Amino acid sequence: MADDMADDEPKALGRCSVFTYGVGHMLNDITSACWYTYLLLYLTDIGLSPRNAATVTITGQFADALTTIIAGELIDRFGHFKIWHGMGCLLVALSFTSLFGGCLPCKIIGSDSPVVQTVGYCISAVIFCSGWSCTQISHMSMVNGVTLNPTSRVACVSCRNAFTMIASLILYAIAFFVFNKKSSSSQVDIKNQYQLMAYISIFIGAVFVITFQLGTKEPSLKQESDGKRVTVSWTYWLKKALYYQVLSIYVLTRVVTNVSQTFLAVYVINDLRMSPSSKALIPAIIYLSSFIVSVLLQELKWSGERLKALFSAGGLLWLFCGAAVIFLPINMNAFMYVLSVLIGIANALMMVTAIGMESELVDKDLDGSAFVYGSLGFVDKVLCGVFLYFLESYESADPVACDPAYPCFSVTRFSLGFIPGISALIGVVVAFFIRFHISHPKALTEPLLA
């Protein structure tokens, strides 16, 4: 590390090092895709009321938000990124089997009452989300220590984003296989389906965790010549108008992606009356199109104005998709496959550019980046948790009676169409007023996936 700092041009990472870092978040990504896409559907299918299911999700979201702040502060102080990463992955794996494999506290107590089930799943959700945050923060924050080469840093982040899409596609492929198997609709069979999906997901994620742990070196926190760490005060960021603008952009983008992902499976089954396999196929199409767009975006030269332009394009595209979701009748449900492609494109445009705006905000103030990423993540998780709680509380577990030729109102349609659409529109308005520093960025000299 010291030799790299002494060079005018730090040595770039090899493709193998970029790969081993990029796969380090796969367990988080594959379990997160399952959490947002199937948790609400799973909990209501096994008999929990929508309000109790919403209680489970908001409990997990608040635990996630709190752990994000705590883990970030502790990692900044003590380091040991890979230990935090490994501990987080272990908690994720253990709790995920309980979350989607049946209520473990219920088995211990010997009661399946709604209260015991809700408390039991809340405990699993807290452990899962706490471990998830430890893995996320340790993995995100270590990239600056892994390499001092700017191009390699972009390659590492791009690789991670690409494997996020791949993880989601793997999850939906597993779900397609599991849900396509002939099975009765009893709660036992439903639990067995989700338990199988959980075990396969954890096994695949664990393989990539081991790859990351063996292939990535532990970075050192002491990067200054005198051995001291100089951090930027929180007040430095809180006095910048750009901080609040980027905060708004990032949080609104997460609302778009998280809320839409949460209600998508319920929408295609209950509102559009599509086949059970569609709750895996539709999300898979969304992530496949997002993956393709994300790879293409790596080839562009980035500037503040281009970030704003492509974010606005994604936001307006989501506004169109949201309107289509609201007014799509049952007898035209096949159009959802086309709509899923557009949603995937919009998601990629918004997410890639929103994260790019975070980098523009941090700029060269790397010693204060932990607060930026941590605070934005905290607000995102709290706000999304509140949104999901209130929306899921009024969700119906059964399909609403509806004329196939006409769209009918449901909380699911409102949640999947209106909330993401209006959030995207507000984000476009905020982006219009953002003014970034003038820069002349260089494109990657060697694209990651060339």
Describe the structure.
GO terms for molecular function: symporter activity. This is Major facilitator superfamily domain-containing protein 12-like. InterPro entries: MFS_2 (IPR039672), MFS_trans_sf (IPR036259). It holds the Pfam family MFS_2. One of its GO terms (biological process) is carbohydrate transport. With 450 residues, the protein is mainly α. It is 74% helix and 0% strand. It has 17 helices and no strands. Helix 5 (81-100) runs antiparallel to helix 10. It is globular.
What secondary-structure arrangement, pairings included, does this model have?
Blueprint: H1 2-6, H2 15-22, H3 26-45, H4 50-78, H5 81-100, H6 104-109, H7 114-141, H8 143-146, H9 150-180, H10 187-215, H11 234-238, H12 241-271, H13 278-297, H14 304-327, H15 335-362, H16 369-393, H17 411-432
Helix pairs in contact: 2-9, 2-10, 3-4, 3-5, 3-9, 3-10, 3-12, 4-7, 4-16, 5-7, 5-10, 9-10, 9-13, 12-13, 12-15, 12-16, 12-17, 13-15, 14-15, 14-17
Organism: Anisodus tanguticus
Pfam family, one: MFS_2
InterPro entries: MFS_2, MFS_trans_sf
